Amino acid sequence: MELTVRELQTNGHLRRCSGHPLANRMAQRREGIIAAISSVAGDRGRGSNYVYGSAKALVTAFLSRPAPTMHPCGVAVITIKPGFVDTPMTAAFRKGVLWAHPSGIARGIVRPSNVSAVRYTCPGSGGRSCSSCGLCPRASLSACHFSPAAQRKNCVRRPFNCISYYTAPIPENACEGSYRLNGHHGVLARHASLPNSPAGERGPRARNRAGGELGVDGRRGAAASRRGVHPASPGRGRESGRMRRANARADGAAPIAERLVRLLFLLAALRDAGARSRIALIPYLAYARQERRTESR
Amino acid sequence: MSRILVVGATSAIAEATNACWRRAAMRSILVARNEQMLAAIAADLTVRGSPRVATESLGCQRSVCHEAMLERAERFLGGIDIGLIAYGTFPIRSGARPRWN
Fold it and tell me: Does the model's ipTM exceed the 0.90 cut?
């Protein structure tokens, strides 16, 4: 019990000690960025380390309030929630595919666009973003791009206050509204509109646009979805080149379960990044079924 | 060019972040409990091109200590642009698991 209290004090109370006075000082100067490292362990209790998770939940909850409050004062409060990171703190753990190196997390902290799945522009920013990193200026902790004057000029109404880094590798060619991960192509739709479509556009036309972006016919994709089959499934007629390539990669080295887990992590990251709706177009996975025959009988 | 305060600078993530910031930071102050590690990290950053790095040892959990530390940091930096709070501990699993009976 003493250890539990000590952990909560160290991880939770101490952060309050540093964070609160620092925020007050920055608010007086009306500029500054506070970045605090929390953890995805705080998102929900886990069987093995729920004391740590509880302390991190405290941190996340504590920082969630100053973020919108301090924003009008010119102070950005950013909560960083790394996933599994290979540090001395986690030396005793068995490492897997979802583990990241601290340098990768650091690159994400300094410039989120390095690892971000989505080039994310804050809601309410009117599409304005940092010319250097393509993100909301407040989301960037890059010291070389830090300019209080520029921040005020491009100030957004709602701060980007939470960055979650799940450790699934993020492709460099991911652009706003779309992503591709280990052969999986996906569309991120924000504000109920599909990427590259006018705001609010829905229905078949938007679906076709999304299909066009992915290299698949939207109408055909929708019909296939209703049948429970992905339009780009192997051996099902005219797949586009991109999706065919995707399937080729899907048949590659990594186990299907691993790729699915990565995809789920990515979807969670997109949700945490502020996406209101997420549409994942997942390649046909029937070949992962247990009854699949790999050899002739 | 920024003035950066890092609390919990001996954490692996903070160390890596400092390495990313080493060229862009005008001044930085590193705060942690372990003085030896702190000195080693500061020396490493200086060798790698950080313009001005100072260290501050802080093991106290009282908020008064933090206020004093922030005061000294502001004096050194001349105002804090970025504050990275990166400290934390991970409890040993068996020890941190409460007994329900």
Answer: no
